Amino acid sequence: MGLEAKLTQDGFLTTTLDAILAWSRKSSVWPMPMGISCCAIEMMAVGGPKYDIARFGSEVMRFTPRQCDLMIVAGTVTYKMSHVVKKIYDQMPDPKWVIAMGACTSSGGMYRSYPVVQGIDQFLPVDIYLAGCPPRPDNLLNALIQIQEKIGRTKGRDFQNKPLPELNVIQNN
Amino acid sequence: MKQIILNRLNANLPNLQKEFSEYKDELTLQVQKSDIVEVCKILKNDSELSFIHCQDVTAIDWAKRKNRFTIVYHLFSLKNKFMLVVKVDVDESECNVDTVSSVWRSANWHEREVYDMYGITFNNHPDLRRMYMPEEFEYHPLRKDFPVLGIPGSLPLPKK
Questions:
Q1: What is the ipTM of this complex?
Q2: Which of B149, B157, B159 comes nearest A79 by C-beta?
Q3: Residue A54 in contact with residue A29, Cβ under 8 Å?
């Protein structure tokens, strides 16, 4: 392989810190599985051996937001649930990305009614809107690849001097 | 089965105003609002009837009718393997009924759901809070005059 040949030849690599940071970041995106409804089943299929998200370095679904950098919002977000989703998003360390998986999450989908948030971009910064009801597992992998390309283009200074988010503490929930 | 119910009700409550109707093998008993608790007590406790299972309490909004709401009780008798529907008409100006949660404990949550969705209050209910919608929500979503997409700003969203 190219990397081994290079290392045995010279014993060192020249690169930029930005490039190697972005490369390592995008190759180990740890998802937060925000599985709210049926899209979560397809998300589990992506984790299984047939589609195997491990091929893209994202097999470690973390169930604590403190260890995640990608939130996959998989399912219908109601107004009641939106506060929980936002709270978990706020607990994730920067830098972080969001996939709005499926029609419900992106636009309310077939739930065009009073309890469902008509698109989670009303309260979250969304990076990828994923079409489908639910999307096929390969479609979710495609979204992950798109996110990886986006992460690959980032520079270290993009994340500097970002103000800390104020945690939105809800008393009653 | 209709005859048994009629006999037992006549024996226990001779002056009861009631009306039977049948649709697709389903028997419906329409009674007055003030009699509902008495009727339910007999339907449940009478040894021949024993409608011990309150499957559901729900309501209908007729929008323009004189008695705007109908409250519907679905009862089941395990002994007779028979399902009975009891209906009560309620007007919008007096939007309240006596609770039957003292008869069937399961009616407690069913009545809370009816209160949440239609705004019908149940007198003497032990814990009449909203079931699904947030406590501070001001409307009743299953009423016909409530817009399908809700009222903008009535449900709070987190800040972006």
A1: 0.74
A2: B157
A3: no
